[in-house]
Specification:
A hairpin with a 2-residue loop joins strand 1 and strand 2. This protein is mainly alpha-helical. The strands form two sheets. Strands 1-2 form a two-stranded antiparallel ribbon. A two-stranded antiparallel sheet has the order 3-4. The chain folds into two domains: 69 residues, 434 Repressor (Amino-terminal Domain), CATH 1.10.260.40; 162 residues, no CATH class. Helix content is 47%, strand content 9%.
């Protein structure tokens, strides 16, 4: 059989999903899927597969397992608590969204370019990029396609914001950004005053990554970037954006680590 066929067979032999396997290998699911579709693996990917399935580089290259490899017990996926089934219908987690908003606004609200539009687009990419990587959303927010890009569904989002305002977690002010009115979300609690009990280390790392790469962009730049994203493109205006459309992404919005680039 071919290398790609063997890679798929090895995965199916341990009853693992593509997402579970990609997570084990430290790559995006969309990148892993191209290996099973016939893309020639890179050396680093082959090395990861040999360790994962306890096979040799030669066996992967030829598509033929030796007798000794066939008798070797494969890796066990079920015991890894970081691997969860894909969440087919994410639902909002208000307490978690509160922590995300407090964390993000503490990090970026002082930046002149950051208003409501930038915040909305940052939340969208945080959730959809995390879904592409791990099969689940961080906040569980639903996003709706509007002309200038995806925005959180307002009923659920504003309900959380109202609770945060009542709890004196956050305030909303209107400022000027050049000649435009800009709505800014300002935290009333510092990071030292809050406990991030609902966010995992992996989720925080992902949020920080998104902040580093996107938070200096203007609302116009982020809206243009969102317009390149397959989930937004494939959705009818005014309708909710389906998280699972991330698996049809192409460059430049697909989430891949530098070493995973095709």
């Amino acid at each position: 059989m071919t290398t790609s066929e063997l890679i798929k067979q090895l995965r199916e032999s341990v009853k693992a999903s593509q997402q579970q396997t990609a997570t084990k290998l430290g790559m995006a699911r969309a990148t892993y899927a191209t290996l099973e579709d016939g893309r020639e693996p890179k050396l680093k990917e082959l090395q990861g597969l040999t360790k994962l399935y306890n096979v040799t580089l030669d066996e992967l290259a030829t598509g033929v397992l030796s007798v000794s490899s066939q008798k070797t017990a494969p890796v066990v996926f079920g015991g890894d608590p970081t691997i969860l089934p894909r969440d087919l219908s994410p639902e909002i987690h208000p307490a978690k969204l509160r922590e995300v908003l407090l964390y993000i606004t503490n990090k970026i609200s002082a930046k002149a370019n950051v208003g409501e539009t930038v915040l909305y687009k940052l939340l969208y990419f945080i959730d959809f990029d995390f879904y592409e990587k791990f099969g689940r959303s961080i906040t569980g927010l639903t996003y709706v396609k509007l002309e200038h890009g995806p925005v959180p569904q307002q009923a659920s989002f504003q309900s959380v914001i109202a609770g945060m305002k009542d709890n004196q977690d956050i305030e909303i002010v209107t400022t000027k950004y050049f000649s435009y009115d800009q709505k800014k979300y300002l935290p009333l609690r510092t990071l030292g005053e809050i406990t991030l009990t609902h966010l995992s280390a992996v989720e925080l790392e992902h949020i920080n990554w998104e902040i580093d790469r996107l938070s200096d962009k203007t609302a116009t730049q982020l809206s243009a970037f969102a317009h390149l994203d397959t989930p937004w493109l494939a959705t009818e205006t005014g309708k909710p954006v389906d998280y699972q459309l991330v698996f049809y992404r192409s460059a430049p919005t697909a989430v891949t680590e530098p070493e995973d680039e095709l």
